[in-house]
Amino acid sequence: MIDIASLREEDRAAWEVLARGYKAFYRTAVPAEGYEKTWRRLRRGTEFHGIGAWSDGKLVGIAHYLFHATFWMEDSCCLQDLFVDKAARGQGVARMLIEKVAGVSRERGASRLYWTTQESNTAARALYDKVASFNGFVRYDYPCLRACPGS
C-alpha cells in the first residue's frame, strides 16, 4: 500500500536522497546548501509545496509543486519535480503523486496543472500520455547572468 501525504520534518534525510536522484537524472548540479534551502522552503509550505509517497513506512517518491498567476488564468499549478525511487517504479507511485497534486489544484481552483520533462524521458512520458495531454509546446531556457541556485 502506498500512502501520499505532505513531507514531514523527519523525512529530511530520505527526501534529500530522492531529490539528489532527481537532480542526477537531469544532470543538474546543486550545492549542498541548495538542498537545505529547498527543504526549508518546502517546509514553510507558503510558496512551494512538497508531498511524498511512502511504501511500508519508507519514502519512495516525492513531488514538488507551486501555484502562480498567469496573464490569462487566475491560478496555475506547476508540478516542478517528480521522482520515484528506482525500486518502487512501476507500482503506480508517480500516478498517485500526480493525482494528489491534481486534487490540491482542484481544491484551490487552479485553472490548470502542468509540468515539463525531457523529450527522451520515455518511461515518464508513457505515464504522462495516459494522465494528461501533450500540448506540443517546446521549452527554451535563457541563462541568467549569474548561475541561478538550483537551476
Q: What about the largest sheet?
A: 5 strands, mixed
Structural Rg: 15 Å
User: Which range best describes the helical content: under 10%, 10-25%, 25-40%, 40-55%, 55-70% or over 70%?
Assistant: 25-40%
Strand order of the largest sheet: 1-2-3-4-5
Provide the low-confidence segments as ranges: none
Figure out the total of helices: 4
End-to-end separation: 34 Å
Q: Give the overall shape.
A: globular
Secondary-structure element order, N to C: EHHEEEHEH
Mean pLDDT: 93
**Total count of strands:** 5
How would you sum up this structure, described in words?
This protein is α+β, with helices and mostly antiparallel strands and 151 residues long. The protein contains four helices and five strands, in the order βααβββαβα. It has a five-stranded mixed β-sheet, with helices on both faces. The N and C termini lie far apart (34 Å).
Keywords summarizing the entry:
151 residues, alpha+beta, globular, 4 helices, single chain, five-stranded mixed β-sheet
Give a short synopsis of this structure.
It contains four helices and five strands; from the N terminus they run E-H-H-E-E-E-H-E-H. It has 151 residues and is α+β, with helices and mostly antiparallel strands. It starts with a strand and ends in a 20-residue tail after the last helix.
